[in-house]
Fold this sequence. Notes:
alpha+beta, two-stranded antiparallel sheet, two-stranded parallel ribbon
Amino acid sequence: MLVNGGGTAAQNYQSHLLHVQQIHDLLLRAGVAPDRITIFASDGEDTGRDLAVRSPQPEPDFWLVRGTRLEGPLRTPVTREDSRIAGVTHPRTGLPLNVVLQPGA
């Protein structure tokens, strides 16, 4: 079981989803059957934009304004994208994970 994501898009960072994808790929290469891998990621297969993504800063000299008042206004903006992983089924529960894992508890 791989778990990624929070309750809001602002908490669902692209880097975390990339780590889940890398671990998933590693498990497949190690011979783990796909049906033995479950991924709970953000809002599952919902097509909503639930992933916070920031493109790399295009200016090579941007480091010169880091830590100044100009960094925020000039920084590449955060956008929202869908967090689905291509070719992978990951359930959307609509419930807290502890409820999903311990039904009836």
